Structures are given as C-alpha cells and as structure tokens.
Amino acid sequence: MIEIEDFSITFGSGKNQIRAVRNFNLSVAEGESYGLVGESGSGKSTVLRAMVGINSHWDGTIRVAGEALTHKRSVESRKHMQMVFQDPYGSLHPRRTLDDTLSEPLVIHGLDNREERILKILKEVGLGPEFRFRYPHQLSGGQRQRVAIARALILEPRVILLDEPTSALDVSVQAEILNLLSALRKAHGLTYIMVSHDLAVVGHLCSRIAVMNRGEIVEEITEDQMRTGEVTHAYTKQLWTASQGYDRAALETFQEFA
Amino acid sequence: MSDGTLGTKSGSASWLLADSPNNAFQARCQRLYIGWLSFKSNPIAMLGLAIVLFLCLVALFAPIVAGGDGTTQNLANRLAPPSAEHWFGTDELGRDIFARIVWGSRVTLYIIFLVSIIVMPIGLLIGTTAGLLGGAVDSTLMRITDIFLAFPRLILALAFVAVLGPGLENAVLAIALTTWSPYARLARAETLTLRNSEYIMAAQILGASRIRILIAHIMPMCLSSTVVRLTLDMAGIILTAAGLGFLGLGAQPPLAEWGAMIASGRDFLLDQWWVPTIPGIAILVVSLGFNLLGDGLRDVLDPRSSGAK
Amino acid sequence: MTMNKMKMTGFETSSPGEAPLISVRDLHVRFATPKGQVHAVRGVGFDLGKERLGIVGESGSGKSQTGRALLRLTAGNGSIEASRMMFDGKDLMQASAKTMRSIRGSRISMIMQDPKYSLNPVLTVGKQIAESCRRHENVSRAEAKRRALAMLETVRIREPEKVYSLYPHQVSGGMGQRIMIAMMLITNPQVMIADEPTSALDVTVQMQVLSLLDDMVRERGMGLVLISHDLNLVSSFCDRVLVMYGGRIMESLDAKNLDQAQHPYTRGLLNCLPRLDGNHDDLPVLRRDPAWLTEGDDVPEGGAA
C-alpha cells in the first residue's frame, strides 16, 4: 500500500543544511499497522508531514497504492491519506463547531449527503448527534481526539497517519482511543502508520515497528522481538530497557547515539 | 454567572445555554450569549457600551432631540450662557450649541463607520495574506505597511487632505489611509503564530486551498483582536477627525462637527468658556466610551483568554 | 471488607520510627470560579519521610494541587485548609508569608514540568544557579560560582564550564531539566517536590534525570514527592505510591506491591495500560464508580461536594 524509497528530507541550504531524514525506506502492506518509534529529533514526525504534503522539501519516491506522490498535491489525491495529530487541543479550530469542522472536507471534495455522513461518522467514533453543534471547548480531550479521527475518516481514506495520537491523553482515555483506532481499522480495512515515542502504545497497535534515531531507521522489529526484547541494535535495546521502567543498574550502561 | 443556576432558567435562556445545541444557528447564538454574559459582568465595559449606544440613539433621533437643525443663526442672541432655553448656550453666530452637539454626533458616527469599514478589511487582508504566504509577498506588503507607519498620523492625514481637498469624505479617507497599517501588522503577527497550528495543517491535508484557509480559518481568528484594536483606536480616530476639523480641513461649515466647533470657539475660551468646552467634553465622553467598550471587548474576545480552557 | 484491611492509610513512611519530614492531614484545596466553587483536593493526608513518594493520578485528580499546597503556591483564587500541615516541626498553615519565602526554594524545592518556562531567558544558566545559591546563603560571588559549577557536575553535565555560560534557549530539554534540578538542589533542600519533572523528556533522558533525584534521596537523605501520571514510572522508581482520583487518595501502597493493588480505580488504571506483550486485543476500559468519591466518609458532607 505504501512504499517509500531513497527518501530524505533536507532543511536549509549551504552551511546550515540539516539532513533531518536520510536513507529512509519503508514498505507497508494494505491493512497493516506500522509503527515508527524514536525520540525527539529522530525525524519521525517529519516523515509523516512530508507524506501528507505539508512539507515539500523531500527527495526520493513515495508511492501510495502504486501511485507516486508529487511534491505538489492535487485536491483529489488528498482524499486517500489523512492524518491525526498529537494535540487534541490544537488540532481543532476553536471558533468552529464540530459540524463546521466535519463538513469542510465534504465541501472541499464536493461530496453530498453531508448531514447523513456527519451523523454517521460521529456515531462511528462514539459521539452522539448531540455533539454536532458543539464547539471544541465544550469537549474533553478524549472527545476532541475522537472528532479529529472523525475528520480524518470522513473522506473515507485508505491510509491514516497517526502522529502520537494518545500522548496528550490520560491513560484511561488513551485506552479508549486505542480501542477505537483498532476497531476502525478492522471495520474499514485501513492502513495505519503510527508515530510515537511510547514503545508500549506502538507495540499494542502495530505488528511491525521501525526504530528511528537521528533521521535514520536503525532497525525494524517485529512484535515478537518487541515482546521479548531480543533486538539487535544497541539503540533499540536501550530504548526498550528504558521503557520497562526505572532501572538503576541498566541506566549505567546507557550511551549517547549520535 | 452569578444569576442563579443555569438549569432552572426557562425559555430563551435555556435555549441559549443548552448543552447540546440543535443547529448551527443556536450554537452561534449560544456563543454570543456566553460572551455577553461575561461582558455584562464588567460594569466599566457596560458603561462604555451605554455611552456608545447613547451616541447612536442621539444620532438616530437627532431631529427630535435637537429641536432644530443647528444651523439657524440668531445674531441677536450670540454667545449666550447656558440657560433653560439654550442648555449649552449659543455660539458666536447665535446657534444653539446643544443642537449642534446633537447633529455633530451624526458626523462623528459617520466618520467612525466609514473609517471602520475601510480600515478593517484592508488591514486584515494585507496582514493575513502577508503572514500566510510569506516570502516576497510578505516583504513587499510589509514594506508598504512600514512606509505608512513611518509618518505621524495627523501629518500624513494633512498631506492627504491637502491633495484631495478639504471636506468630510476626504478627511475620512485620509484618516483611513493613515490608520490601517497597525492593523496589517497585528493581523500578520497573529497569522504567523496561527499558520503553524495543527488545525491549519489539518485543513491543508484535507485539501483546503490557500484562499479557503485565509478566509475560513485565519481571518475569523484575527477578527476579534482587530475589532478590539479598532474600538480602542476609535478615540484616536475621533480626535484626528476633530483635529482635521479644527484645522479647517475636515467637515466644512455650516456642518456641525465637534472639532470644528472647538476651533471656531477657541477665541471665546476665557470669556464664554462654554463655546469650546462643551464640544470638547462631548469628544472626551465619546472617546472614553469607546475605550471602555474596547477594554471590555478585549476581555471577552481575546483569543488568549477564550478558546483553550 | 478485605479492601479496608489491605488499604494503608498513607500515614506510615518507608522509614518507620523516624519523624516524618512533612506531615499532612485532611488537606483541602478549593477554588472560587465564576461557575462556583471547585473542590480540587478533598481531605488528603500523608506523611513523607526520607523516601521517594509517588503521587499518581489522571488530569484533574488534584495531584498537582496537592504538591503546590505544600508550598502554599495555590493560585490566587484558591484557598487551602488542613487540620495539620507540618514541615520539620513548623506549621506551614500558620507560617507567615516571610517564613514561607524562606522555606520555599531553600528547604523545600519544586521542579516543574517544563524547564523552558522556569528559567529566566535573559540570564545564563550558571548565573541563575549561582544567584539561587547566594539568595539562600551568604557566600561570595566566587564561592557561589564554584558551587554552581560543582552542582552542574553533580547533575552529570559534561562540560560545566561551558554550560555555565549558556542561555536557557541554547540547551536541550533534558539538559534544561538537569539545570533546573541543579538550581533547586544547590540550596540543599530537605524536601523536593517534582511535578511531572520528566514527562516532556525522551525515555532515556527521563531515566537519567530520575537517577539524579534518586541519588539525592539516597545520599543526602532528601524527601522526594514525585507527581506523575505515569504508573509504570512511579512504580519502578518510588518507594511508596499514593493513587489519587477526584481530589482524594484512593489507595496508598508500597510501589513494589502495585501489582497487588486492591482498589478498583488503581486496578482499572493498571489494566488499561498497553503492554509490551504482543497482545492486540482491546484494552479494558476504566469504569468509574461515583462511590469512590464518598467512600470512607463517616459523616456525609451534606452535599457540599
């Protein structure tokens, strides 16, 4: 479904040139849920932003469903890939009701039966019709994130990119959102690429995981490796150890990976 | 909300405060109503609103309130002190100052209205466009803005009026041309912080065009601070208009304009103090009213204080 | 009623026999808002010894407000009430504003979540640490600088001389938090309140920052209150954990026994955490019981909640 080859992202030019992502290759099958894990500055979110076309400073090829993506996207091509952001407080326009937010994609893409579609999608993400005309400030963090998911889903895309969708939420709400995401994937046969710094969250939702450090994939691991911690790369090992909780002895062996 | 519990209210109040609005109209009304509730709890702002409303009413019913057209001369009764017949006295041509103040409120409102409808769209459009597009467009638009910002307002307005010729409309145009630049700066600064926000990115990903993002997403966010700034600037606009009137470049006689009234009355300040003082007080009160209103609106509308919880 | 038997009161420290550093009973924090009174902390009580005490809870559980109330740093519209709030023999409820200022920073320190907002952007970090030293102790400039450099080394900053002259925006998040810790530790406080000190940091950096706090507890006998939403982190790092919900302590237990938590809220929180076990089934969703907010109330509060 998604193939990324020889992909790199460069910011700036001349002396100030920063290669945020390099030698990036990725292949995700249809209906798969793929995880990208890394610490801040590893370039994981940058990859997602390039994929959806917010960032156009990339080189290489990105193919979605066999079609190569261009740097400038047509309105039509936007339909197939949508994104859910990290911060449910920042990703909804504060002056627009949910109805405004959800009908906008329908207007842009000229889809009809708007009322029907909006009510259907609200129901799917677990919000009743009474939410339709509320403003974001009338919702809790979890409800906002549900709206963000509804907005991404309303165009019926085949790929959804998830940028730390639960890291701003409480654990109990995180569980609800993760459950919702896996239910939606099953129901619609969606392909996910999920970015997170939390191994456990990615491990829960994804079957394959790429570990990124300083703009490169250091290792791709399976869920079995994730479970047992039998990973080969030292960076992955360290990340895995750190996410097991505080361990004074293991800490002494930590090193910097540059 | 000190006025009792919300649940027990009936009728329009419960419609306005319902947890789940049934349609877009109700949602918008609720938003306004909640803003109004918070505005209402600020007595200073309410005083400002009262002054501004009073000005509007006076202007609307000027013929009834003034009891004359304010231009009737009566040289036999010139420079009369305030009395039961002439509440604010008469001027050097024997015209009733009260009637002239009342008619002058129309001129003031006319100026305010015209300046607002010119300044807001220009400032918003230039500022948000520059902020959203960035690059060469931004540099060009902002340098033009800087040029306008670099001149003292009254001097620049004087220059414009000198070119366009004296008269009320030209004065308004001159004021508007010298006022829009800070609005463009303000709107640009806000756009710069908004354009990297996730909801703008989400709109981009959905395929929204730049024009749609500009009009539907960014402008509504900049609108409130622009309105607040404009209300706070109203005092300055009224004073500039009065200044132009004072210099004889604004409203032309016999039209009653407060600034021009002060100008013609200033020779009588020592002996017949009411002639220039009364229009001065009128300007003061109206400016103050707009300032208080603006302060109150800022508390309600400021995106930094609303929006996120 | 096995639950009540298992449930600890939160009043015994990990080092029984010693007098607690901080002792709180029946702490209430209330805020007056336009929409009425918000009762953020409802009758919290605990003792803190020379140990690592974790306070866990979700947003709105009152955990941060509990931490702030200890320093009487509650926002202007809030009021604090407690039948007892003692620190080292002093009654914090009765202490004057001046006494509180002398306690804050020098005897009880606090670390916030984001170092970016806690450091002064126009002063070098070294100056700020040295200033903090001079404010609490009467030492010369040179001595303050020497101590600041030593403290930077203690928090394992590699080139203290170089970092000393950096401005806050020039340092990374992890280093910023270490600098904050250095600044807070230089006055040698007896108690440190850390409010989500590591949640803005990467996991590996998070561990390194925690190990610094760990050292202070072990080597200097400091008392540490770690406020966090992360159950895993708290259970692996702390000695004792208080679980808060709705402004109350639901349960108090030894961190190593967190798996055996009895309270349905704690159990629910633990269950809804995703685990590295390759299980993709739906996570159990936490069901909240309104009774949790009233249990243990001998006398109902007359609906004042």
UniProtKB/TrEMBL annotation, chain A:
Which segments constitute the ABC transporter domain? 2-239
InterPro entries, alphabetically? Answer: AAA+_ATPase, ABC_transp_ATP-bind, ABC_transporter-like_ATP-bd, ABC_transporter-like_CS, P-loop_NTPase
Q: Do you know which Pfam families this protein is assigned to?
A: ABC_tran (PF00005)
Keywords tagged on the record: ATP-binding, Nucleotide-binding, Transport
Q: Which domain of life is it from?
A: Bacteria
Q: PROSITE patterns from the xrefs?
A: ABC_TRANSPORTER_1 (PS00211), ABC_TRANSPORTER_2 (PS50893)
State the Gene Ontology BP annotations: transmembrane transport
Question: Is the keyword Transport in the record?
Answer: yes
Q: Tell me a Gene Ontology molecular-function term this record carries.
A: ATP hydrolysis activity
Q: Which SMART domains is this protein grouped with?
A: AAA
Which PANTHER family has this protein been placed in?
A: TRANSPORT ATP-BINDING PROTEIN
Family recorded in the similarity comment: Belongs to the ABC transporter superfamily.
Its name, as the record gives it, is Stage 0 sporulation protein KE
Source organism of the structure: Roseibium album
Automatic annotation (TrEMBL), chain B:
Assigned GO CC terms: plasma membrane
Protein location: Cell membrane
> How is the protein disposed in the membrane?
Multi-pass membrane protein
Transmembrane parts of this sequence: 44-66, 109-133, 154-179, 230-253, 273-294
The record's Gene Ontology biological-process terms are: peptide transport; protein transport; transmembrane transport
* Gene3D superfamilies given in the database record: MetI-like
Q: Which organism is it from?
A: Roseibium album
Per its UniProt record, what PROSITE patterns does this chain match? Answer: ABC_TM1
Question: Could you confirm whether the keyword Secreted appears in this record?
Answer: no
Protein name per Swiss-Prot or TrEMBL: Putative D,D-dipeptide transport system permease protein DdpC
Family membership noted in the UniProt record: Belongs to the binding-protein-dependent transport system permease family.
**PANTHER family, per database record:** D,D-DIPEPTIDE TRANSPORT SYSTEM PERMEASE PROTEIN DDPC-RELATED, OLIGOPEPTIDE TRANSPORT SYSTEM PERMEASE PROTEIN APPC
Limits of the ABC transmembrane type-1 domain: 109-294
Q: Name one Pfam family in it.
A: OppC_N
What InterPro entries does UniProt report for this protein, alphabetically?
BP-dependent_transpt_permease (IPR050366), MetI-like (IPR000515), MetI-like_sf (IPR035906), OppC_N (IPR025966)
Does the entry feature the keyword Membrane, yes or no? yes
Q: Which UniProt keywords apply?
A: Cell membrane, Membrane, Peptide transport, Protein transport, Transmembrane, Transmembrane helix, Transport
Which SUPFAM superfamilies is this protein grouped with?
MetI-like (SSF161098)
From TrEMBL, chain C:
Q: Which Gene3D superfamilies match?
A: P-loop containing nucleotide triphosphate hydrolases
Query: What does the record say about its membrane topology?
Result: Peripheral membrane protein
The Gene Ontology terms for molecular function here are: ATP binding; ATP hydrolysis activity
Please give an example of a GO cellular component term from this record.
plasma membrane
The protein's UniProt keywords, in alphabetical order, are: ATP-binding, Cell membrane, Membrane, Nucleotide-binding, Transport
Q: Provide a GO biological process annotation.
A: transmembrane transport
Its chief place of residence is: membrane
Q: Where in the cell is it found?
A: Cell inner membrane
Q: Which PROSITE patterns match?
A: ABC_TRANSPORTER_2
- SMART domains hit by this protein: AAA
Domain ABC transporter, first and last residues per copy: 24-271
InterPro entries associated with the record? AAA+_ATPase (IPR003593), ABC_Ni/Peptide_Import (IPR050388), ABC_transporter-like_ATP-bd (IPR003439), P-loop_NTPase (IPR027417)
Assigned protein family: Belongs to the ABC transporter superfamily.
The record ties this protein, via PANTHER family, to: DIPEPTIDE TRANSPORT ATP-BINDING PROTEIN DPPD, OLIGOPEPTIDE TRANSPORT ATP-BINDING PROTEIN APPD
UniProt name for this protein: Stage 0 sporulation protein KD
The species is Roseibium album
